Amino acid sequence: ESRLEKMSRDMEAVYQSKVTEKLQKLEESKQNVFKTQETYRLSIQQEEERLQSKRDEFERSKREWEESLTKTGFADHIGSLTKTAKKGLF
């Protein structure tokens, strides 16, 4: 029975080492997923900031353009050009 017990202990040791190895690989995989997730999050955050900056710049340019039209008197003329003619009776 000593030989059987030794084989059992050896098999248990192999099993434990494989479990430990699998758990280590799982933890490494988990860390890689977290790292990738953080990279994507930062990338999205930078893209949002870039888009917000462009949006702000566009709004500022639009305001300046509208103010320049108002100062030159073209705003009324442009407003009448952009209105579409109504079709039908009403």
TrEMBL record:
**Protein species of origin:** Adineta ricciae (Rotifer)
Q: What is this protein called?
A: Uncharacterized protein
Q: Which UniProt keywords apply?
A: Coiled coil
Query: In this entry, which stretches build a coiled coil?
Result: 37-68
Q: Does the keyword Coiled coil apply?
A: yes
